[in-house]
Amino acid sequence: MDPRTPCLVGAAQLTVRSQPGPEPLDLWEHVAREAAREAGLAPSRLDSIGLVYTDSWQYDAPPYRLAERLGAAPRHGVYSRVSGTAPQLLIGEAARRIAAGEMDSALVAGAEALATRRHYRKAGEHVAWSHPAHPKPPYGWDRPPHPAELAHELFLPVHTYPILETARRYSRESGGKTGKNGINREMSERAVFMAGMSQVAAANPHAWYREELTPDDLLGGRFVGWPYTSNTVATLEVDQAAAVILVSSALADSLGVPREGRVYLRGWAYAEDTWEVAARPSLASSPAVAAAARAAFDRAGLSLDDMAALDLYSCFAIAVRMACDALNLDLADRRGVTVTGGLPYAGGPASNYVLHSTATMAGLLRAQGGHGLVTGVGMHMTKHAYAVWSTEPGGTGDVGSAPVYAAAPVPLREVYAGPATVAGYTVAHGRDGAPERAILVADVPGGARAHAVVRRADLLADAESRELVGQPVTLRTEGHVNVADW
Fold first, then answer.
1. Which residue, 126, 267, 303, 347, shows the most beta carbons closer than 10 Å to its own?
2. At 173, is the pLDDT very low, low, confident or very high (cuts 50, 70, 90)?
3. H helix or E strand, kind and range, residue 439
4. Which pLDDT does position 36 carry in this prediction?
């Protein structure tokens, strides 16, 4: 084996349920020390520290504040952007640098203390954590929402992902001909497979919710972005942290890490759908997911059948469903779709979930051997990362993060008046559970798309009572907003 071959030799997770909990820097330090302890590596020996963006607090120099805590002087420090794929990109870059001989040890860590922030907010208190950034930097996304998305208030994932769900439902239900039966079937199927996820979370000591839910429990939640209920979407307000340590095989040898204690990144890939949901060529599928999965397996020299365990990113049901569609995987596959319990039940700590799924997968593989698949999704089903981990070295783990696929967008009409056809939709509900407005993505003449809102109470009720995708509608403009009627 090449002595530069990177391997994962330490992993740690932490979930803090007492409130108020510690700040993210404290959480980073805890999991970093635990991962280093498991690896037998002194924290001062770290060549690189990579941190996943935290929504909880804006620090002035995150990797170097953690380095101070650890007594480390890394040659390389990086702080990610906002994305559910960020942990895998940091891991992949660390593996590339190790394989290239640029360094031989790296920490990748992430933490959120959003439950603690909520605690302070409800108490009317301000958080006063250490080393605040001055001035406060812009939010860490790669690009802001499109002006048309802002005008139509379509920028929250709890609204964008249901639009994709309704489009897929229509395409799967004979063009929506089954109507209300198709809606009920989608909800029932979702309740069944997500109840199975809750069972995994119940057995996971690091899960935020450790309660087994039944399909009936999940069918009974209040709607947030119809057809999604509050108990089937990612749980963001958690206090959780995770970290992994990667080293070269030569350093693993010198640390005395046994071969069964090493997990290898056999192959991984990154791909992108369009940044705007409405600009996707197909709202019902993801060619980027298919491309990322295919490239990851090819680079690993393995196939889906070789995987002993799977963790499919599960911020919303459509993310799991599109992954299963692309992989030709049955939702009821005996291996399950998660090793943690998923973002709704194990916890969805903003951009950091994939570090938790990777740490859990590493522990599982070290215990039983074999290969496992971990996936990540970023933004509004835009970014996709697929990683194949194994207790057996091989493949091409140091491939870089260049996209293997990038979708070409459909043109958007910011303001449009005239006939249109619904391509996907959701009904936004308030905290009281009442419907507030519908948000549509509509096909318009000329092969373009437009956004629209629906405000009439009778039309909101109609939208939830039957299949609205495929419905002809008429759009009119009110300033920068398109309003739909039918």
1. 347
2. confident
3. strand 435-444
4. 98
Structure-token match 């005996």, residue found: 334
What's the token pair of residue 393? 């070295």
Beta bridge partners of 225: 228, 428
In the block, tokens 């995708």 appear at 469
The yes-or-no verdict on residue 176 having pLDDT over 80 is no
User: 467 vs 168, 183, 190, 227, 486, CA distance in Å?
Assistant: 12, 7, 17, 11, 14
Residue 113 has what pLDDT? 98
Lowest mean pLDDT among 10-14, 219-223, 482-486: 219-223
- In the numeric block, the tokens 């108020």 are attached to 20
Beta bridge partners of 245: 10, 107
Q: Are 190 and 184 in contact (CB under 8 A)?
A: no
- Crossing angle, helix 62-70 and helix 24-39, to 10 degrees? 50
Q: How far apart are CA 67 and CA 189, in angstroms?
A: 46
Q: Around Cβ 353, how many Cβ atoms within 10 Å? A: 31
Nearest to 365 by CA among 5, 9, 2, 4: 9
CA distances from 356 to 184, 220, 347 (A): 33, 28, 9
CA within 13 Å, CB half, 463: 33
Q: How far is CA 330 from the centre of its chain?
A: 20
* pLDDT exceeds cutoff 90 at 375: yes
Dist CA 196 CA 200 (whole Å): 7
The overall average pLDDT reported for the chain is 96
Measured CA to CA, the distance from residue 105 to residue 45 in angstroms comes to: 8
List all residues 6 or more positions away from 437 whose beta carbon is below 8 Å from its beta carbon: 153, 427, 428, 453, 454, 455, 460
Strands (E), 158-260: 223-226, 228-229, 239-248
Q: The dihedral of CA 450, 279, 327, 367: what is its sign?
A: negative
The answer, yes or no, to whether residue 175 has pLDDT greater than 90, is: no
Residue 26, Cβ density class (10 Å: 0-12 exposed, 13-18 middle, ≥19 buried): middle
Whole-prediction pTM: 0.97
Residue 399: name the closest of 95, 133, 137 by CA.
95
